[in-house]
Design goal:
The complex is a heterodimer of chains A (266) and B (490). By secondary structure, chain A is α/β, with parallel strands linked by helices. Helix content of chain A is 24%, strand content 25%. Chain A has a single domain (2-218), classed as 3-Layer(aba) Sandwich (Rossmann fold). Chain B has a domain at 226-323: Alpha-Beta Plaits (2-Layer Sandwich), CATH 3.30.70.3450. Chain B has 18 helices and 18 strands. In chain B, the strands form four sheets. In chain B, strands 15-12-14-13-17-18-16 form a seven-stranded antiparallel beta sheet, sandwiched between helices. Chain B has a five-stranded antiparallel beta sheet with strand order 5-6-10-8-9. The chains are: A alpha/beta (266), B alpha+beta (490).
Chain lengths: 266, 490
């Protein structure tokens, strides 16, 4: 079984900053973390590899070069290979331009299935899985809570999708793009102590546009269909802090405030 | 000797109600908060002690120690269980944890001579509450005050949040009683001062359970004027600027009870609602009205002298609010423990050092630079910063604070994350002539540097150990490096 995982490294939300002149997220020198839903996808792939060691799993990530330690860690956790797609010309890509680059990369790979998260912390549009699938001409299923079955020989995957009102089971023809929901119970395995400093550069490929050969007009801000025209700060005026004591009056005020904001269930 | 034989010997001294062999409690007693994450994840590598025993009198304590001394049984003195540096971690198969739980009487509060005598197992908060009812205070207020006990505080040379006014525990202890391994009970009498040879209190204060067991403590007490508290807070551009203001206040002879400088990263943890991405400088003026007025004037003078380094003053009620919620409770400790079970993370680590005024800004910058450049898992750091929180006429401390996302197995966390960071901090501090250990005690994981810390004076420490604990039964591995214990450190 050959699984490709599209994994996005997102800025740590606690440190997220925005370039208001260029209207892009500042990704340089910001601590990166693996997007939680992508981590669930990666953990699922590693679980398959653990149960079927002859499977091959590869991580593919489009990110700044600073993401390299994270890709090294993924290999040390058990990925057979990792590909970092990194080129300054890709900076500022929206989901459309990003999907095109990812799809171009995937065109060069043989695989039975593509795993990814459904949403990302820093964008949250959920557009990339569908756009990549469309570009590759593959079916896509997102919001997956459980991978029930993955059988490339039979050419199908069976997945559960946890909708807001019902749990639905789908059969998806392979190869396909499968987008996972975040599952805190499915964690990435720890890196073994002996592997922490294991040399893995031979298992990591770095691709830029010289290798992918995409037209400059398809890249970065130029290739993005989404153009941020204006960013406004909405409702962020400074408010005077209200200090309360831990007495009955303070508790009553907090209770009333929570009630007014609709946090309390009746 | 097997563990059952040890139990039989203890049973000959103490009734069953004072001997605890509950498996969960013994697991908990195998390590302190140093290996909190491994402990929470149930992967501790330290052996469990044979039993936890609770002597009720000095005499019982003496009999237990004497028996252990005779039979070569390791003793870990425990009182409060808030140790953070491995001082309570067990490295021996045959170990008794001697807990001061039942030495819990407040013996005397002497308002005339302004001193209070308590047994070692009295919780500091309990004593403080009793004193507060009478308008008095110990002046000692570590974050662990609601849980920490007097014996442990003295044994680890503790310091409190008001130390810049009241001093560390070593400035508060008047006299004490302790038991040596051979069963000898030593009482150091309570006098205002004496020139009767070296100050023998200091053999006991900070011994970390390696020389003797503290059974009773007498500390100074002070009049308490919480109604006079005045708080100050300022945003400043960098740590060095804050250190300059702190120094100015101190060298002019003022003693605010709290005087602190936080780096931006550390300020973010505590003052996210007002820090604006800057460092924070803060003070608390405390005492009777006249002293508070003078202290306030001194703080304002110092701030005015360095006004080019003050970005803005902060509403003092914000500092007050922060300050009144600073202490941990047992609930906070329990919550953190549960959090470590549920998540691959904990509330972070600290390493506290000290140096003179001239050195501390360089030390801070060097350490931060080296960690960012040399620590192999720097990309996992979620927080790295520090604060100065205890100042003196000649210098101050630096409390390095750090946290990280844990990507290794729980049993490897210390050697992958904390130890390499701690090593950089300790190396850099010793290189610049500072002390690697300001107030947590050396415990078991900085003992490889104890000799370097003391230099040519180390012989004095070594001779104390030889003299008072010739059989080496007291808290094996704490303070003094032991080859046999190195396997737990790697």
């Amino acid at each position: 079984m050959r699984i490709l995982c599209l994994l996005k490294l997102v800025p740590d939300v606690d440190q997220l900053e925005y370039d208001r002149e260029r209207n892009v997220l500042i990704r340089e020198n910001v601590r990166l973390v693996l997007n939680p839903e992508d981590a669930t996808a990666a953990a699922t792939a590693l679980g398959i590899k653990r149960d079927a060691p002859d499977s091959t799993i590869e991580a593919v990530s489009m990110a700044p070069r600073g993401a390299m330690p994270h890709l090294e860690d993924l290999v040390r956790r058990g990925f057979d290979h990792a590909t970092l797609i990194s080129d300054p010309r890709y900076a500022g890509s929206d989901t459309w331009a990003t999907s095109r680059v990812l799809a171009r990369t995937l065109e060069t790979r043989d695989f039975d299935c593509v795993f990814c998260g459904t949403h990302t912390l820093d964008g949250g549009t959920g557009q990339v899985p569908a756009q990549v699938a469309e570009a590759l001409g593959l079916p896509v299923m997102v919001g997956i809570s459980t991978l029930v079955e993955l059988d490339p020989r039979a050419g199908q995957a069976v997945v559960d999708v946890d909708g807001e009102t019902a749990l639905m089971r789908f059969s998806v023809a392979l190869p396909a793009v499968l987008g996972f929901q975040y599952d805190p119970a499915r964690k990435l395995p720890p890196i073994r102590y002996e592997d922490l400093n294991r040399e893995v550069s031979g298992q990591i490929t770095v691709l830029g546009n010289n290798e992918l050969g995409m037209d400059e007009s398809e890249l970065g801000l130029k290739g993005s269909l989404t153009q941020v025209r204006r960013v406004g700060v909405d409702g962020r005026e400074a408010k005077e802090p209200v200090l309360l004591r831990d007495d009955q009056e303070g508790l009553d005020k907090v209770y009333r405030w929570l009630d007014q904001k609709g946090f309390l269930e009746r | 000797m097997d563990r059952n034989s040890v139990l039989e010997l203890v049973a000959g001294i103490l009734p069953a109600s004072q001997i605890n062999t509950d498996a969960d409690e013994l697991y908990d007693a195998a390590a302190d908060r140093y290996k909190k994450y491994a402990k929470a994840r149930k992967v501790l590598d330290a052996p469990t002690p044979v039993a936890i025993v609770y002597p009720r009198t000095t005499e019982e304590t003496a009999r237990v120690l004497s028996m252990c001394n005779e039979h070569g049984i390791n003793v870990i003195p425990r009182s409060g269980k808030t140790a953070t540096e491995g001082g309570l971690e067990n490295w021996k198969e045959n170990t008794l944890v001697v807990d001061a739980r039942d030495l819990n009487r407040i013996i005397k509060i002497d308002e005339t001579n302004m001193q209070a005598t308590v047994e070692a197992g009295v919780v500091l908060q309990t004593l403080e509450d009793e004193l507060n009812k009478r308008g008095l205070t110990t002046g000692h207020s570590p974050q662990s005050k609601p849980v920490a006990k007097l014996g442990g505080l003295v044994a680890t040379r503790s310091i409190g949040q008001f130390s810049t006014l009241y001093g560390g525990i070593e400035d508060m202890v008047v006299g004490l009683e302790c038991v040596f391994p051979d069963g000898h009970v030593a009482r150091i009498k309570n006098v205002p001062r004496r020139a009767g040879g070296p100050d023998i209190r200091h053999i006991v204060i900070g011994n970390e359970g390696t020389l003797c067991y503290i059974t009773e403590v007498t500390v100074k007490i002070y009049r308490h004027f919480p109604e006079n508290h005045v708080f100050f807070g300022y945003l400043i551009p960098d740590v060095a600027s804050g250190i300059k203001v702190l120094r100015e206040v101190m060298v002019n002879g003022y003693r605010p009870s709290v005087a602190r400088v936080y780096s931006e990263e550390d300020a973010r943890q505590h003052f996210y609602h007002f820090y604006k991405g800057k460092c924070v400088l803060l003070f608390l003026a405390e005492g009777n009205k006249g002293i508070v007025e003078a202290t306030c004037a001194g703080i304002e003078e110092a701030v005015a002298k360095f006004e080019d380094r003050i970005i803005e003053q902060v509403d003092s009620s914000l500092i007050e609010s922060w300050f009144t919620h600073l202490n941990w409770s047992q609930q906070d400790i329990d919550d953190e423990f549960q959090g470590m079970i549920d998540n691959d993370s904990h509330a972070g680590f600290t390493t506290e050092v000290s140096a003179d005024w001239e050195t501390i800004p360089t030390l801070y910058d060097n350490v931060i630079k080296r960690i960012r450049e040399e620590f192999p898992r720097a990309h996992d750091l979620t927080m790295l910063g520090g604060h100065s929180s205890h100042s003196y006429i000649n210098g101050t401390n630096m409390y390095f604070v750090y946290n990280y996302a844990i990507h290794c197995a729980p049993e490897d966390e210390m050697r992958v994350y904390h130890h390499p960071i701690q090593r950089i901090i300790v190396e850099e501090t010793l290189k610049l002539g500072g002390s690697m250990c300001h107030h947590h005690g050396i415990g078991k994981y900085r003992n490889e540097w104890t000799q370097e810390e003391h230099g040519s004076a180390y012989i004095m420490l070594e001779k104390l150990k030889e003299a008072f604990d010739p059989n080496g039964i007291m808290n094996f591995g704490t303070l003094f490096y032991q080859e046999e214990g190195a396997r737990f450190q790697k």
